[in-house]
Structure formats: C-alpha cells, structure tokens
Structure prediction request, 151 residues.
Amino acid sequence: MIEVQRTDSVNSDFIKLVQSLDEELAKIDGSDHSFYAQFNKIERLRYVVVAYENGIPLGCGAIKEFDHQTMEVKRMFTDPKGRRKGIAVHVLTELEDWANELSFSRCVLETGKKQPEAIALYKKSGYQVIPNYGQYAGVENSVCFEKLIRK
Prediction:
C-alpha cells in the first residue's frame, strides 16, 4: 500500500530521494545539468510530499509559491524500484490537493524533453503545455505545463 506523508525539505527521506533524482538527471541532461540544478535547490521548501510503500520511501515531490495564485511543482521523483506502481500519481495528486487547500488555483511545472515518462505523467494528469516561463523561456530542452486545480 502507498502512503503519502506531508513534510518539508529537512526530511531525511526527501533529501535522499532528491540525491538520487539529481544523479539520474545528471546522466539525462549531460552538460545542461548545471543550468537546471541552479533552479532546483531544496533549502526552505515548506511543502514536500514523500511516498512510502511498506515504510520504504520511493517517491517525492514539492511545491513552492510561484505567484499569488500559482504553485510550482518541483523535485518530482520515483525511485526505480517504485516505478509503474502509481507512486508519482499519488505524489502529484497530494501536491495539487495541498496547493488547493492553501487557496492556490493553479500549478505550473517544467520538465525536460528527454524525460518522456514525466511528460506522459503530466499529460495524463490533466496538465497542458504552456510557453516556457521565467528562467526556462527559450530553453530548447525544457517543456512547461500548467493545470487549474481550484475545486
């Protein structure tokens, strides 16, 4: 059974999962990794979700305020041992619910074009492609998404 826990960025399970995420992204992104890494610091993230299966941390994600009505989804990751079990869907849904509870009406996110599984997850979860925003504007390897979450 998958259990999701709300926490923050000092959670040791979250920190370990993000280390694995960064190792994986360094391989996927190659020489572009340092550009993306500068936007993915985890210090002071207040809204973090860690997913567990039988007490083992297998997935994570976070949200941070983007503007007064929007949360940005960050640091989404599922350990290879937990993939194809719906863990990412559980994490993303919990993050959206949390953003909604905090009175935000929209989520945005960026992912890499070299991550087809992530792109498929976001599309399946109701996210729509939008023009690349902020630091990702004009970045060829990036694709940005949004979803209205107001319930």
